[in-house]
Amino acid sequence: MKRLTKEENSWVFYDWANSAYSIIITTAVFPLFYKAAANNAGVSAADSTAYLGYTIAIATFILAMIGPILGSIADYQGYKKRFFKFFFLMGVAATAILAFIPSEQWLLLLACYTFAAVGFAGANVFYDAFLVDVTTEERMNRISSRGLGFGYIGSTIPFIISIVIIILAQRNIIPISVSMASKIAFLITAAWWGLFAIPLIKNVHQRYYIEREPNPVVNSFKRLGGTLKEIRKFRALFLFLLAYFFYIDGVGTIISMSTAYGSDLGISSTNLLIILFVTQVVAAPFAILYGRLAEKFTGKKMLYVGIIVYIIVCIYAYFLKTTMDFWILAMLVATSQGGIQALSRAYFAKLVPKEKSNEFFGFYNIFGKFASIMGPLLVGVTAQLTGNSSSGVFSLVILFIIGLIILARVPEPKADVSISTNQTV
């Protein structure tokens, strides 16, 4: 494979940038910070986990509603980067503001987290859509996987700094509280995210677009309506979105709620942070490996592998009892977490009409986000009904099985790359 171009490198570096948010805010420090705040306010462990799940559901619902609409507008020349920057700046600002909210205000923490989550996910809609602008179809698996791999590597740097500060505060080696140390981690995340997004903003440009026309908003709604009417004619794309809807639900839910789940099992904050750090380190080479194996065995077959691993994860999670059990679970997730995300993104990018990539990635987003509403709600409701978080994680197995069955019916992208409109589901 020839060396990455400036555009490919700049695109990859945004995964390096926003991965700090993924590990510190979505997965590690913020959930522990929030759980401690809620606990101090007298909220039970099961209820605080449920409220976090409901908050994630609300944030994803907001973006699911506006994603396809904004994507349709962003297909016009010059709009893609504008929308990307809007959501990117919202996410960075909200992440920084988390550091200034009093720790006892757990509801306000969840409200600010909602804005940060919408900004993070919204920027990713347009970032993912830029994949068609920066590389060729033949290189998409490799470039997408490289992005996820570099993301995991990059996330370890701010994560290590944050862990060190928090542990030093826990042991009274530095004269700040654990709460203040966590807030410093939020500021580190915002700074890291903002700094390493600069190459994408500077070097990546929209190559495929629709020429501007009068009344772009009105016409975007018309195009969106036309796409909705015609989407069943895009057989491969429609089936893939349906499969993706189910299996990515479980992936996203496990990522976003793993720390809260581990806390409910009685695993210490220090152990959780160390486990998550090692998970990031292990996930990096596996994400890149998935991309290389996809070139040999096809992306679809490697997606099968990832989904099967997650089925095993869900079953194993039900029987978790010890910290060692959680270590094993985390390592299983690490082998496939990045690969399944990267190959899904590349698989979809090969199927979409390039000049309408934002609109179709809006649908990609809405399917993924609506699924992400279902998963956290399922875990939250089950945790409250049973008083056991393990039951909620186990219930996700059915979503992976359904996704696997539907994916089996999806044609390979190369065989269906033209997206023939005479095929129907």
Please give a handful of descriptors for the protein shown.
Growth Hormone, Chain: A, 425 residues, transmembrane helix, single chain, 0% strand, ATG22/LtaA_families, mainly alpha, Atg22-like, disordered C terminus, transmembrane, globular, transport, 17 helices
Q: Supply the CATH architecture.
A: Up-down Bundle
In CATH, the homologous superfamily goes by the name MFS general substrate transporter like domains
Radius of gyration: 21 Å
Mean pLDDT: 82
> Can you tell me the residue ranges where pLDDT is under 50 for at least 5 consecutive residues?
415-425
Domains, number: 1
Task: Kindly state the percentage of residues in helix.
Answer: over 70%
Write the element-wise H/E pattern from the N-terminal end onward: HHHHHHHHHHHHHHHHH
Question: What is the fold named in CATH at topology level?
Answer: Growth Hormone, Chain: A
What is the SS-derived class? Answer: mainly alpha
Largest sheet: none
Total helices: the number is 17
Terminus-to-terminus distance: 36 Å
Count every beta strand, where a strand is a DSSP E run of 2 or more residues: 0
CATH class call: Mainly Alpha
How much of the polypeptide forms β-strand, as a percent range?
under 5%
Overall body shape:
globular
